[in-house]
Amino acid sequence: MVINHIKNDFDVIFMQLFYKLFKLIWTAIAVHDRQIAERRVAPVIDVRGIFGFIKRTTALVHMEEESQSSPLRTIVESRFTLILMLSNLLIYLLMATTEYNYYNTFDRLFDPGTVPIGDEGDATLTQFLGKALTGVSITNLVFGLFFYSRLLRRFGIGFLLPITPLILIFAYSFWQREDALWIALIGYFVVEGTTYVIDDANFTHLLNGVPSRHKPKIRVAIESFFEPIGTLIAALLLSRHWINPKILGLLLSLALLMVAIALRRHYLKAIWANLAENAVHFKRRVGEWFQVQDLKEAKNIPFALECLAHAEDRPTLLWLMREVEFLPAEAKAQFIRSLESSPFSSDPLVIELALKWLMQAETPLLIETLYLFLAKKGLLHPDKLSDELNSDNLKLKGAAILTLLTTEASWSHKALATEKIGELLESHDLKQIEMGLEILAHDPSLQNFDIALSYLTRAEAAAAKALYKMATKMRPQRAPRLASHLLSIHETEAREYLLKTLALIADPKQAETILRATVHFRQSERRFAEDAIAALGLKNVPLLFSLLKNTDLPDRARLTVGKALGKIALFQLRDQLETVLKPEIERAIFYLQHTQATSGLLSDTLKADYESVLDFIIQLLAVAGEIEDPELLSRSLKSPFPKVKSHAIEAIERSTDPKIFRELQPLLEETLPPKPPLELPELLARLKHSSSLADKIVAYTYMKKLNLPAWQNELKEAMTKSNELFKHFAYELLE
Amino acid sequence: MKLIEKAFLLKRTPLFAGLDLDLVFAAADKLGTADYKAGQTIFEIGDEASRMYFIADGQIKASDNLLESPSFFGDEALFNERPRAYRAEALTHSTLLTLSKTNLMTIISEAPSVAIGLLQVRMP
To answer: I need a surface site. Which of A352, A640, A649, B50 has the fewest CB within 10 A?
Structure first.
């Protein structure tokens, strides 16, 4: 019952600390006066019983908690936490001891016997303490407001830690010899001043070094436990007449100085350990991220199996193979399908498992999946499946075709199988076409690649998948046709496979086509485009930089190159960042200045252009690792609230290279020197040649409005090079 | 309404205000147009919700609120799959731009900041 009450981590810490404290006090009493301990205390309190109970209870709980890394264990394992706790205990001990010492001095110096007769009623000591407290409070306020953070920033916490012990060592060194008021005042200043404004604030920072998991508990334990304990121990020690309180103070100050040095030494290591413990463990095995429980939840099975099968981690695969054994046939089929495209599809253990399941399987879904899987590996005998060539079951038919094509079957059987592929591909049923393409992908010839390419408009995803499977053996000659399809297909899965195929072919000539297409992509698709561009490798970095600087490309396309460069050539990107950003800053300044010089739609467009270039700059800074949270910063910079905007500017200033920030500052603060704007026709000419579709649309709208010469011919010419959206606009304008 | 007018109307709404103008034009291309006479009902309580509306011109009474350009309404029911919870009626001759649920989802998938804009408007 009692154990249940104290099972909570907190109680365990307290019980164990209480046990140690109780033992310490008992030992102190017993050492000092065994008679008192045995005759007076023992009959009232069952000391041995209390020892036994606490020891048993904490030991029991400790055993249970041991396996779960309890807070106590965490504290014991963290040397920094132990030193921090000791430091706090010493501070509280010193506070009580110093308080005792200065009150002794005040008591002596303000003794009513030494006060002139007639002044006894003036409460001289109280008045004096009131004045001293006012002085200390004002000092605390000024120090806390203006100096602490500056000292912390400039010299670090290591500088602030020894301040209190050093002042006290100085005070106690003199206190031994003379009981002067100035020394007592130093003690008073430390107890009421530095312990609050320096040591308390230091403690808040030092807490960053304790294990994060139990930080709140450790904080509460330190704050609510050590103060009474420190006071109690100090009271016990000071009540012993053979202990000199000033020597005790000096010893405690020296101990605190040593502990401060130890804290200083361990602080950075503790912070590092803490960060490392809380970092995302990319090297952790994928299996560890998933619990077996996740797999037992039906809805999680497809996702979990797919993730795990692609984990490229053999121990995970082995673990998964054991777990899948207990799952239903549908999950087993899903597992096999997921493994097909994983690096382990030909692993002997996987093949062995598939063959074992085929012998045992009763569910048609699992049987047909296993047949198709094993047929793709060429592991089925043609005699077994030749009858399935005319099967209505698509997977069995596919397995039969594949088996006859990939094994030592007769020529007549092979010819029949080839005929069946033709039938599948010519079918009007999408499923049959998909199966035809899947089979086609197992023979990566140029002819099959062209056939799959021709199906990109009819069966987008299946054709793209087949192309991807054949891509490793393709030369760049087919890359232009592949890249040209990026815009004509709409399914996300198809786009992703096409981009993966282009990444495998890695033809630098297609980089610009891929980038132009990305403007119309979703974010997830854009990530595949980044990979395709990054796959061009280090040898194409100069080309990628030229694309990044090419203002004829839309900003979003250029950002994709920037992100790809961030992946493969971060140091070069950082090196060239200033050069890359300079024209962008000029572009943004141009838009901002003309926003102020124009009105109506034109002004709105230029304002939007300015924001768009600013977004591009912010994103590029983030890609180069100069800033974090680019989306948040972009939104804050556009905020109507000046405070939000100034915070964003401050955040950029803090982390960006000062040279870059100096260039950016007038732009961010919108404090630009006045410059004569372009004449309207000149401005429109510049906009109509911009990479932004909106700029072109607005430019032609104004050209019509102003009836500028040949605007219709220019618009018609622009239509030939533009996308459907621009054509839609142009038809409206020409009407 | 022309494409450019639709785009700049969208740009004035809090949903699209922070969005790149090229994306706003692409979104504007997905909008339909509907005219309502004064007093005409746009939707009733319990109607199936399949689109949201941007007011291009006129005054609309929606759930006892008087709305004018560039306000928008009818987006709430698109996310909770429930029928309309209030009635919307044109108080004057009004021109509305309509955005279907499918197109809204496409826009959000291309520009997630539109969803953030919606959250900011609906959960101030």
So the answer is: A640
